[in-house]
Structure formats: structure tokens, C-alpha cells
Prior knowledge:
By secondary structure, this protein is an alpha/beta fold. It contains 11 helices and 10 strands.
Amino acid sequence: MDTRPIGIFDSGLGGLTAVRALVKAAPWESFVYFGDTANAPYGDKSPAELAELSGHNIRLLLAQDVKAILVACNTSTSNAMDAMVRQARGTPLIGVINAAAAEAAAATKTGKLAVLATAATVRSGAYERAIREMLPEAEVTAVACPRLVPLIEGGHTDPADPELCGSVQEYAGPVRAAGADTVILGCTHYPIVKASIEAALAPGTALIDSGAASVGTLLAELAARDALGDKKSAGSRRFFCSARLADFARHGAAFLGWQMERVDQIDIGRF
Ligand code: DGL
């Protein structure tokens, strides 16, 4: 047993989709969450910038004595994993790409899949590689959705929001044209607007939530290391962000369905 917290990070609100899944699956686990709201969005950044930013996030979480780190950000996972592994100094790191790709490969019936993701994740080709390892004949359509994260971080999450609707319709176009039966929400922010995305796709399209998918991998990894927490206790929850604390707490609570007990704003450049 290991009762230390799990570290989780994202560029902002997106990783809360993994938090929601973690709290549901393992309410006894303690965690420390960091949303790098001062530097969001990550999706328009270069691999070198992402390695630098992700390194700060890893060092912040290590300073909280975490037992494992869930990189609840597809953009960091796809662009900066090697750099993060070096920074983590042996602390287990779990990314989101492989778990989501495996769930999608198991769900597709036609072998036609699509990935909605940030520009940096699409540019990396990480999802295509992960899916083709499992399904060599798969047809994968990857669509960059650069306007979605700024809209979500700005609180434009209502399915009736005209800017959100217009953007989602545009990004869903190539997915419908390709006839994909399974779509990976390859950015952890996107499940926050899942209803809008679902409405823009062909009925019956399977949607894969990358944050939720990775929680299964995280818990399996902890179990294999005999490092799950104390199932008889309630886990503690701690949140940090690097800018716009009030917005982060308000939008986050709306998504989670509960208030964050404690949120602190920190200067991530110090780590
Ligand atoms: N939620 C993150 C991801 O999964 C980052 C999005 C962004 O900041 O552009 O890719």
C-alpha cells in the first residue's frame, strides 16, 4: 500500500476529465492536480516548448511527493514523453495516448477511426502510430481543432454557444466525410463539450475519452507495484493552477459537479 498522492497535470481544465474518472473508480486515492492555465493552450506550441513546460509540471508534482504521475494531456504525452521520463527520475509516468488508442481499436467495427486533437498532437502522429500497432489496416483521420481549448478555457461550454457549435461543426466535417465509426477525443478538454461533438457526428459514433481511458492504466500500474492507497479511507484532493484561479475553480466545479476544496495559484516557473 502507498497512501501518497497521485500527481496529475494538464494545460488547464482538460485533465479534470481524468480526475472525474479517477474519483469515480478509486475514491480512496489522494491526488494533486495542476492546470498550467498561465501557459494554456499547449496545442500551438513546439516540441521543445512542450518539453520545457512539461518539465516544470513534473518537478512541481515531484515536490508534492507523488507516487505516480498521470500526464492527463495528449499534447504533452505525444510531444514530450522522453523529456518527462528523464525529469521523473523513476517515478512512474502514465500518458493518455496508448490507453485511448487501445480502447478505440477495440471499439471500431469498420477499422475507420478518427482523432480530434490539438495541432501539436496531430503533428506528432502519435495516435496513428499507436492505432496501427494494434490494427495495421486501420484508416485514421486526424483533425486538428485549434479553437476548442481556448473556447473551453474561456467557459464556452454550453451546447447552444454559437462559437462552440460553429467550430465543432467545422471539425466534425472531415470525420463524417471519412465515415469513421469511432472517434478519439484526443485532447482531455474535449469531453467537457462531448454533447456538442456527439451532436455533430453521425448517430452511433463511438467516442473515446482519453483521460478516462488512462485511469484504468494508472490503477493497473499502481496495483502491479502494490502501490494502491488505503481503500478504507477517503482520498485527499489538492488543486493548483498557474493563472486565473477564480475561473479555473468555477469552470472546474461546473464540470466536476463538486467544488474543489482547495485551489492554490503558483508560479510554475519556480519549479
Ligand atoms: N488538454 C490537453 C490535451 O489533451 C492540452 C490542450 C491545450 O492546451 O491545447 O492535449
